[in-house]
Each structure stands twice: as structure tokens, then as C-alpha cells.
Design brief:
The protein is an alpha/beta fold. It contains four helices and 31 strands. It has two domains: 3-160, UDP N-Acetylglucosamine Acyltransferase, domain 1 (3 Solenoid); 224-278, Udp N-acetylglucosamine O-acyltransferase, Domain 2. It has an eleven-stranded mixed beta sheet with strand order 6-9-12-15-18-21-24-27-29-30-31. Strands 1-5-8-11-14-17-20-23-26 form a nine-stranded mixed beta sheet, with no helix packed on it. A nine-stranded parallel beta sheet has the order 4-7-10-13-16-19-22-25-28, with no helix packed on it.
Length: 284
């Protein structure tokens, strides 16, 4: 059950914690009457919630956060100090079209993270479940982020970027608009991503693949045999001397029953920007 909120009566919203009544909404918060908050939502000092925002159970919003527009936030999210979620996109062509933000469950947004609504009418900026966005990271308009993604401090996702499940994006990475980053890829700090990054790859510098994300694959529970097949796929794709088209054809024929390798194949076949190139890692 959700509740419609009032600007003037925050003391109506009380919860029982350890036998004691405590306010869930701080008296200094400003909440639009259009907003719908689950009774278990906590709202800190000087938070502003503007427009038809909908927030699910047990989500906690800390001081000075600003949430606006057609924004839907699921359950068990933590929104830290100064975050801006659902504000208008940084897009010169945006003229106020109805767009939104959709956020799943169990995500955490650290200090001053920004998530902008979509720029294209009828579209949403979307974030899945159990993601972790560190301080000052940015999710631009029309971005799609999967589940269990980690975005480190200062990383920037430009418009229309797609990030698949369990990707790790290190600090101060810049991802060019319309780029895609495949499942379980890891992007090294300060990298500049201007090409699509296939699943499971380790990337550094300017869209340069330097290996596979071995640690991420282990942590995700990939068995040694599957990891070895992914390693072989990497060698065929990046170290065999074949062009991308021929390498992909070889992957299809040599690993027809290996789902992760076929994910790499499907990702490359759907790429619109071309895939990241290879550079030898230290010690190769």
C-alpha cells in the first residue's frame, strides 16, 4: 500500500521502532502531493521529492537528495546525501517530452550521484537490481543498466549507453554515448570507452581489451572448464590474426554448446559501434 504525501503534515507519518514512535519523514523535507511513498520509506532532512514520484518499501533517502518527474523506485534502495534522480536530461534537443526513470530493488546510490530521465518521448532511463553507484558517478538520459553493476567514483555513462549484468566500471571512466558493455566486463580506471566491450573482457585505456575478467568469472561461479573456453574465445577473437567476422564465425563453429561464448558471438553480431580492440597486457 502506498500513501499520498502532503507538504505540510510530515508528523502524520510515524513508525514504531523498538517500541518508540519515530518520524519516517523529516519535518524539513518537501514532498509533492502527487508523490506516492510506501509507509516504510524514510526521508531525511531537506529532501525534495517533486512530481509523481513513486517509491517502494523500505527505501531510505538521505539528506538533501532531489527526486523528481515520472520516477519509479523499487524496494530496499539507499539514496545517499545530495543525489539527484529523475531530473531533466542534459540534452539540447529535450523540450519537456514525457519521459521517466525506472529503478529496481536493492540499489545503493552514494553521495551526489546523478540519474537523469530519458530524452526520447515514451522512453525511460532504467536501472535493474542490486547495483552500486559510488560518489559523483553519472547515469545520463536513456541509459540502461542491468543487475549487480558497480560504477565507481566519478564514472560517467553518456546517453543511450547499455550496461549488462555484473559489469564493474572503475573510477573516472568515461563511456561514450550509444556504447554497450557486455556482461561481467571490467573497465579499468580512467579508461575512455568509445567502442562496444564484449562480455567477460578486461579493458584499459582507450577501448583496448587486455584480457578476460578472470576474477569476476570466478566470483560469478563460472567453472574452470567454462573459464578456459572463454579464454580460448578471447585468443581467437583478439590474438589469432583473424578479422572480427571470421573470428566470430570460428567461435560459432568451435563452441556451439558453450553459452557464455555464444553470448560473446550474439553481442558482437548486434554491435552498432564495433568492438573494442586488443592491446597486450603487461607480461604478455
Amino acid at each position: 500500500m502506498t500513501r499520498k504525501c502532503s507538504l505540510l503534515v510530515p508528523n502524520e507519518f510515524l513508525a514504531i521502532k523498538k517500541g518508540k514512535a519515530v518520524p519516517l519523514i523529516h519535518p524539513t523535507a518537501i514532498i509533492d502531493p502527487q508523490a506516492e511513498l510506501d509507509p516504510t520509506v524514510e526521508v531525511g532532512p531537506h529532501v525534495i521529492i517533486e512530481g509523481p514520484v513513486c517509491i517502494g518499501p523500505r527505501t531510505r533517502i538521505m539528506a538533501n537528495a532531489y527526486i523528481s518527474g515520472n520516477t519509479r523506485i523499487g524496494s530496499d534502495n539507499i539514496i545517499h546525501i545530495g543525489c539527484v534522480i529523475g531530473h531533466t536530461p542534459q540534452h539540447l534537443g529535450y523540450k519537456g517530452a514525457p519521459t521517466g526513470v525506472r529503478i529496481g530493488d536493492g540499489n545503493e546510490f552514494r553521495e551526489y550521484v546523478t540519474v537523469h530521465r530519458a530524452a526520447e518521448e515514451g522512453h525511460d532511463t532504467t536501472i535493474g537490481n542490486r547495483c552500486y553507484f559510488m560518489g559523483l558517478s553519472h547515469v545520463a538520459h536513456d541509459v540502461t543498466v542491468g543487475n549487480e553493476v558497480i560504477v565507481a567514483n566519478g564514472a560517467l555513462l553518456a546517453g543511450h549507453v547499455r550496461v549488462e549484468d555484473k559489469v564493474f566500471i572503475s573510477g573516472n571512466v568515461g563511456v561514450h554515448q550509444f556504447c554497450a558493455i557486455g556482461e561481467l566486463a571490467m573497465i579499468g580506471g580512467l579508461s575512455k570507452i568509445v567502442k562496444d566491450v564484449p562480455p567477460y573482457m578486461l579493458v584499459d585505456g582507450q577501448s583496448q581489451v587486455c584480457g578476460i575478467n578472470v576474477v569476476g568469472l570466478r566470483r560469478a561461479g563460472f567453472d574452470p572448464q567454462t573459464r578456459e573456453k572463454i579464454r580460448q574465445a578471447f585468443k581467437i577473437l583478439y590474438r589469432s590474426g583473424l578479422n572480427v567476422s571470421d573470428a566470430v564465425s570460428r567461435l560459432e563453429s568451435e563452441f556451439p554448446d558453450c553459452e557464455p561464448v555464444q553470448k560473446i558471438v550474439a553481442f558482437i553480431r548486434s554491435s552498432k559501434r564495433g568492438i573494442a580492440s586488443h592491446t597486450p597486457s603487461f607480461g604478455e
